[in-house]
């Protein structure tokens, strides 16, 4: 059920971002595929840390977003998703990179300015 809810939110997110729909849809598909294993941690405070699969997905997403356009696309997708999730879930999702020992040029934040991501 959580996966269906996440997919529905991703489709809504696709409609919210400002870049062309086909490009955004493809980028968001890649983002969702790579962060899907993070949903349990982000949505449930009883999890002390993200799973290894979650961290590996975030790490892989970071490694394939090679260009500024890629990173800004990932940022726009995460921004859109953050805007439709409850604040508590978005806050926990924003902690995932640090909990996984990663530093990313974007975050799970509804207020991020993705045009500044390089």
Describe what you observe in this structure.
- It is a single chain.
- 65% of the residues lie in helices and 0% in strands.
- Helix 1 packs antiparallel against helix 2, helix 1 crosses helix 5 and helix 2 packs antiparallel against helix 4.
- The chain has helices at residues 2-16, 21-35, 39-43, 52-64, 68-84, 87-94, 96-99.
- It has 118 residues and is an all-alpha fold.
- The model is unreliable at 11-22 (pLDDT under 50).
Beginning-to-end CA distance, first to last residue: 35 Å
- Estimate the strand proportion: under 5%
Global mean pLDDT = 82
Spans of at least 5 consecutive residues whose pLDDT stays below 50 are: 11-22
Helix content: 55-70%
Cα-based radius of gyration, to the nearest Å: 13 Å
**Number of helical segments?**
7
Number of strands: 0
**Shape designation:** globular
Main sheet overview: none
Helix-strand category: mainly alpha
Secondary-structure element order, N to C: HHHHHHH
What's the short story on this structure?
The protein is mostly helical and 118 residues long. The chain is built from seven helices and no strands.
Question: What is the topological layout?
Answer:
Elements lengths: L1 H15 L4 H15 L3 H5 L8 H13 L3 H17 L2 H8 L1 H4 L19
């Amino acid at each position: 059920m959580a996966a269906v809810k996440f997919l529905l939110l991703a489709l809504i997110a696709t409609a919210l971002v400002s870049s062309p729909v086909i490009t955004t849809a493809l980028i968001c598909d890649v983002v969702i595929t790579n962060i899907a294993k993070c949903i349990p941690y982000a949505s449930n405070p009883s999890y002390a840390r993200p799973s290894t699969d979650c961290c590996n997905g975030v790490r892989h997403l970071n490694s394939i977003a090679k260009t500024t356009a890629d990173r800004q696309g990932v940022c726009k997708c995460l921004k859109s998703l953050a805007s439709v999730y409850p604040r508590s879930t978005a806050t926990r999702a924003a902690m995932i990179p640090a909990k996984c020992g990663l530093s990313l040029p974007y975050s799970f934040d509804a207020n991020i300015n993705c045009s500044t991501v390089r």
